[in-house]
Amino acid sequence: MSAVFTQEKFRGGIAADDKYWEALADGEFRLCRCAQCGTWMVPAHYRCGACGSWEQVWPLVEPLGTIYSWTRTRMAFPRTEARADDVPFVTALVEVDGTDGARIFGIVVDTGTAPHIGDRVRGEIRPGTEKSFGYPTIEWQLVDAPTPAPGAGSTEGARA
Ligand SMILES: [Zn+2]
């Protein structure tokens, strides 16, 4: 049985981004935007810092963007111990096209080569698992990258 993020929600959040996770669980990539002035609010929050509006909209966004930063994780940290079998894996912070620079984290599918800042990526939504505490994830695939070898890359990261 796969976990559902609402049962495993991280503590300390204000839940403003629940709609992001709900949409992702439904297979849709939606980001928060002010309904009044159109400012993108990522991560989501309840009040727009630009105009003060309390109203948000969650438009569908194409999961396409550019790597802003990335890192290779080589050990399992306390909150990622469930992923110990997956290390090393690469995560990236991706600037999403058409969102004035909104950035979203995700695993990068291993192609056997290191990604570069500025690489173009397309996201694929993956369902929540026990390893992701029930949170669905977005997995970034390098655009025009060579096809991963069979068995390389996965929802849970990739092995070297
Ligand atoms: Zn606003």
Furnish the topology, listing elements before pairings.
Layout: H1 18-25, E1 33-34, E2 56-57, E3 64-73, E4 89-96, E5 103-108, E6 120-126, E7 137-142
Parallel strand pairs: 5-7
Antiparallel strand pairs: 1-2, 3-4, 3-6, 4-5, 6-7
This protein binds zinc ion.
Strand order of the largest sheet: 3-4-5-7-6
Instruction: Count up the helices.
Output: 1
What is the CATH architecture descriptor of the largest domain? Beta Barrel
Strand content: 25-35%
Say what the CATH topology of the largest domain is.
OB fold (Dihydrolipoamide Acetyltransferase, E2P)
Describe the overall structure.
The chain has 160 residues and is mainly beta. It folds into two domains: 49 residues, no CATH class; 79 residues, OB fold (Dihydrolipoamide Acetyltransferase, E2P). Helices cover 5% and strands 26% of the residues. The strands form two sheets. A five-stranded mixed beta barrel has the order 3-4-5-7-6. A hairpin with a 6-residue loop joins strand 4 and strand 5. It is globular. The C terminus is likely disordered. Bound molecules: zinc ion (ZN). The site of zinc ion has 8 residues, from loops.
Short description:
This protein has 160 residues and is mainly β.
Which features characterize this protein?
five-stranded mixed β-barrel; 2 domains; two-stranded antiparallel ribbon; binds zinc ion; 7 strands; 160 residues; OB fold (Dihydrolipoamide Acetyltransferase, E2P); disordered C terminus; mainly beta
